[in-house]
Amino acid sequence: MRTSRRAVLGLGALALLLPRRLAAGPTVNGRKFLFVFCPGGWDPALVFAPVFSSGVDHLRADEPARVGDLAYTASTSRREVTSFLEAWGEQTVFINGVEVPSVAHDVCTRWTMTGDALSSTDDWVSIIAGHGSSSLLMPNVHISGSVYPIRYGSAHVRLGASGQLASLLDGSALDGSDLQVSPLDPGVVALQDAVLRRRVQRWSDQRGGGQAATLASAELLALDRARALAPEVDALRGGTSELQDALSVACSCLERRLSRTATVAFGIGGNGRWDTHADLSLQDALYVELFRSLDATLTRLASSSGDAGGTLLDETVVVVLSEMGRTPQLNHSNGKDHWTWTSAMLLGGGLPGGRTIGGYDDALIGRPVDLDTGEVADGGASLLPGHVGATLLALADVDPAEFVSVEAGEPIGALLV
Asked: Using an 8 Å Cβ cutoff, are 292 and 78 in contact?
């Protein structure tokens, strides 16, 4: 009885997605994006910025290290970072010395994701997802984290921290509700499914086949793939603090060609568990879980087939961000306060990896960069969130000039080769 009710609601939930996607949309290159946001402000000096000067405090076991051309901070308490870079260093890009000109979490988050504190344009995720293929059922699967859509709000399907999408897909959203729904037998559910399919086919026939038929066929395939995803999404119901679980669902959406982008936040709670004003060593465990989960994610993407004969990792840029950094020196509580310079990390996606873009001086202040080479250079550009965002848009085959002013940032040409 319960199963039939749920199946009916699941059919309805998927059908609700149908009208907005059955329309011609832009075609794009094959690159996909997985955004991992670390709210609260990580300390770049613990991984990305091996600045060991008298002006920068480190944890006791920290030491400078190098894997290939990547210089980083190593520690016996963060061995997972070293293991990750040994395995994936050639797929890794550090972007150091990005200035986010604020110390307020909400303002910095907006700036990091849009290049503008006022959010007068969509965030990078929304723009990229909004320029995805019209055959995608869930252009961006939003598992958790902040997005700021203006023009491209319809590109997001919010899974939610408590697995709301799963509740719709399997019908359990009815549990505890005051809706009176008569139980249906599975045969009736199958009949409704057939009616939906005939409706889509009729829509295609009325428009004379061609592109309409292609879109309709792709939409029905996406519906089938979404149904198959429901049991995996169900694992997130009730909320989870496990980054790996969320990334697994994100990978499934990319593998099944349901989505072009996916967004996950790691370390939610208050202003974010990375906000270590007291006891900087708390970031050790966060970095350990982050890099352990990223290792599993890249391993999975590298074992999945892409659309162009390579792997899904070849076609997916994993973007790892935090909205701010931490001050160079410890405060009286052995923590670090808000700092306006931070780092970002890009993985996979066919990027020229194994390198660092930009850098810091001995006071952990970002240094100017030659955008064409990625090297620190006097007279170069001071990196801003807009430089990172413009680069991501260019990688997605979206014209950055439409969304990012030259003053806010230009693409980093060294990553577009």
From this structure: no
Q: How far apart are CA 24 and CA 214, in angstroms?
A: 10
CATH T-level assignment (fold) for domain 31-161+240-415: Alkaline Phosphatase, subunit A (3.40.720)
Q: What is the pLDDT of residues 147-180, one digit of tens each?
A: 999 999 989 988 765 555 555 555 555 555 555 5
Residue 21, pLDDT score? 40
Residue ranges of the chain with per-residue pLDDT less than 70: 1-29, 160-186, 188-189, 192-193, 196, 200, 203-204, 207-241
Q: Are strands 140-142 and 156-158 parallel, antiparallel or unpaired?
A: parallel
Alpha-carbon distance of 235 to 191, in angstroms, equals 29
DSSP letter for 26, please: -
C-beta separation of 290 from 38 below 8 A: yes
Residues 6+ apart with CB under 8 A from 103: 324, 337, 338, 339, 340
Distance of alpha carbon 104 from alpha carbon 339, whole angstroms = 10
Q: Is 33 in contact with 261 (CB distance < 8 Å)?
A: yes
Which amino acid, 373? T
What are the angstrom distances between the C-alpha of 409 and each of 6, 259, 366?
Answer: 48, 27, 15
Tokens of 310: 């390579």
Q: Which amino acid is at 207?
A: R
**What per-residue confidence (pLDDT) applies to 202?**
75
Delimiting residues of CATH 3.40.720.10 domain(s) in the chain? 31-161+240-415
Q: How far is CA 82 from the centre of its chain?
A: 23
Give the pLDDT confidence score for residue 8 in this predicted structure. 37
CA 213 to chain centre: 32
